[in-house]
Automatic annotation (TrEMBL):
Residues 30-227 form the Electron transfer flavoprotein alpha/beta-subunit N-terminal domain. Its cofactor is FAD; AMP. It holds the Pfam family ETF. It is found in: Mitochondrion matrix. Belongs to the ETF beta-subunit/FixA family. Its main location: mitochondrion. This is Probable electron transfer flavoprotein subunit beta. The electron transfer flavoprotein serves as a specific electron acceptor for several dehydrogenases, including five acyl-CoA dehydrogenases, glutaryl-CoA and sarcosine dehydrogenase. It transfers the electrons to the main mitochondrial respiratory chain via ETF-ubiquinone oxidoreductase (ETF dehydrogenase). Binds 1 FAD per dimer. PANTHER family: ELECTRON TRANSFER FLAVOPROTEIN BETA-SUBUNIT, ELECTRON TRANSFER FLAVOPROTEIN SUBUNIT BETA.
Length: 268
């Protein structure tokens, strides 16, 4: 009996449209959120995820069959998909929301991604995504997706080594005490940290090619998921402005100032 050929890998990369990291954030007039009428771009951690997927295909060439990117957001989020396609992804899925729709929460996003994976006829072997989005800063979606799928997970990855034939990955992740190495079986979810790689700039020819790559549009109803937020934002305010410091002539004056501020010095 002739041995069957190993199935090629299919990679899914979720990406998010966020306020550009260089923009100064301002609270909107009704104090229910921030001013969104500013420059947006792809979440920086998601850029790292797209770059890593493209590098894996460059490393393993014909063993990675497809790189698909998916975003959940308003019509303008299609620009984020096109950026990912220009970086080297093959196709995209846009779970389109109305402009007035509130941003979905991590659990809703994870459920939508689970539904997207279930629709893929050829399956998904590896999900690579940013460890967090710089707007909500929750850092929960990857872990929730792995839990919903009952897949292995390796979060805060700073190095990914893949054995395509064995369907295994060796991931170095950053923890408080240093580095930890995990060995996981595919399918799995990997979330990317800053030191994993440096994303490439899309070249003009690739930007032009990205316009012709297929992007499928679906709605939350098509996926049979409810993205209605469970949490309500009551009020958003800017942090208090930092007060200027003062110089003191000696330790006695410092202690006196601390006492005036109601702070009791601790005896050595």
């Amino acid at each position: 009996m002739r041995p069957t050929a190993a199935r090629l890998l299919n990679i899914l990369v979720p990406v998010k449209r966020t306020v550009d990291y260089a923009v100064k954030i301002r609270v909107n007039p009704d104090q229910k959120g921030i001013d969104l009428n500013v420059k947006h771009s792809m979440n920086p951690f998601d850029e790292i995820a797209v770059e890593e997927a493209v590098r894996l295909r460059e490393r393993f060439k014909d063993k990675v069959k497809s790189i698909k990117v998916v975003t959940i957001g308003p019509p303008k989020a299609s620009d984020t998909l096109r950026t990912a396609l220009a970086m080297g992804a093959d196709s995209g899925i846009h779970v389109e929301l109305e402009d007035s729709a509130p941003a979905p929460e991590p659990l809703g996003v994870a459920k939508a991604l689970r539904a997207v994976i279930a629709r893929e006829k050829e399956g998904v072997d590896l999900v690579i995504m940013g460890k967090q989005a710089i707007d909500g800063d929750a850092g929960q979606t990857g872990q929730m997706l792995a839990g919903l799928m009952d897949w292995a997970q390796a979060t805060f990855a700073s190095k990914v080594e893949l054995d395509v034939d064995k369907k295994e990955a060796r991931v170095t992740r950053e923890i408080d005490g240093g580095l930890e190495e995990l060995r996981c079986r595919l399918p799995m979810v990997v979330t990317t940290d800053l030191r994993l790689n440096e994303p490439r700039y899309a070249s003009l020819p690739n930007i032009m090619k990205a316009r012709k790559k297929p992007v499928e549009k679906v709605s939350p109803a098509d996926l049979q998921v409810d993205l209605t937020p469970r949490l309500e934002t009551l009020k958003v305010t800017e942090p208090p402005k930092r007060q200027g410091g003062a110089k003191v002539a000696n330790v006695d004056e410092l202690i006196a100032k601390l006492k005036e501020a109601g702070i009791k010095p601790v005896a050595p």
